[in-house]
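Deliverable D5.2: sample structural annotation.
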Amino acid sequence: MSRPERPLVLGVELDGDGAHPAAWRASSHSPAELLGGRVHAERAQEAERAGFAFATFADSALPPADPDGISARLDAIQRAAFVAPLTSAIGLVPEAGTVYTEPFHVATQVASLDFASRGRAGWTATVADDPDTAALYGRGGQPGRPEDAVEVARRLWDSWEDDAVIRDVATGRYIDRDRLHHIGFTGDDYSVVGPSIVPRPPQGALPVFGSAALAGTAELDAAFFDVRPGSAVQLHARAADTAAELRATGVLAILDLEFVLDAAGVPAADRVTELDARTPWPTRRARYTGPADGLVDLIASFESVIDGVRLHPAVLDLDLAEFAFAVAPQLRDRIPLAVPRPGDTLRATLGLPDAVNRYQESA
């Protein structure tokens, strides 16, 4: 089944030094510079110039995988907030967990990011309930927390009506209390009264991303999904099947794709071999290794199958630049792409409808 006609959405993951666990060894900066803002800002700006609709920022309570590399990281919302005023069009979508975090705090943090970016923020709701993470927190996660966290966030964003801030000098009132609403949420292991401590964000409701598994329980706007490597025919068939399932729930289907390009005169396969000799790269997602023209052909072939592709460059300092130079211009000539423009919201770039305030409509 083909997807509805709309431009293909391209996203990029900007975590660490790249998707390969040994990417830091091929980077042009020291690992410690990831604990400052400059590298993150430059990469977000490069992704924006390349025409990506959004950038995601992965996060984890656990340290990065390579024991010889950097052993700490800035959290995803911090990184996105830092680059927000330094970019003007690209969507900024940090990860924040739903199992061990307080949903009230996550909802207000990403709402603040939406103000900082002038309506370009999203949220990737993640579920990290593996044994290592549980051991770090000293307890296991509770069933139902992911979908509860998403529901709480959506209610909190709606808890302020759009015109709740009145700034009435004559009466000394900053807000109209009648336009703020308690959300009255009660879940299995917590309750939230509200309202939020942050006004309704510029988008009304931020686009919520998540995994395909989460799409079956929580209300998402877009879902990332993996396809195990295989032949090109298998890749398309599996992607089409998953996309159809997600689309049936009203969710945009975005394929995760790792890539390694020929760069600086070195074939992609040789680059992977050299990096793997340091730290092997686990095979978890679909992956492309080769020249730029082949990646153009592969992405273009998905135009009628899925809603978008999130790309995971093997080494950000090399593969992101090569993509911007050799892949992006060809793609724009081949297929319609969602193009973020200054002043557009992330919802608009993704083709999502305007968010409706549930409390304002019922008032």
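Annotation notes: The mean pLDDT is 92. The longest strand covers residues 252-261.
The annotation will be released with the project's public dataset once the embargo ends.
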